[in-house]
Description:
Blueprint: E1 3-10, H1 15-25, H2 28-33, E2 38-44, E3 52-59, H3 62-70, H4 73-83, E4 87-94, H5 102-105
Antiparallel strand pairs: 1-3, 1-4, 2-3
Amino acid sequence: MAVTVNIYYSGENGNARKFAEEMTAGGVVRRIRAEAGNERYEYFFPMEDEETVLLIDSWTDQHAIDRHHASPMMAEIVRLRDKYQLRMRVERYVSDGLGIPAGDEKFIRT
């Protein structure tokens, strides 16, 4: 079962966006996406909150997340979080593997 973690990074003076930009420009995002088990690693910017960045981070399973957390890359991420003095709010979702229910498909435009 896939595990998706939504992390809301919040700071001041645009620091959350600066963090996401440095993560991307410094190659950390590219390296995370290349890790075994990573399915998605993308930043989004809430329209109504300029001081927050949403990270959607999906992995094949908890074991893949544990490997990521044990990697040297986590020290880089923590250093950047500290540099930009970010606060975090975390949501965790586990996929049931069933996909989109048939009744919901009629509301999805492809």
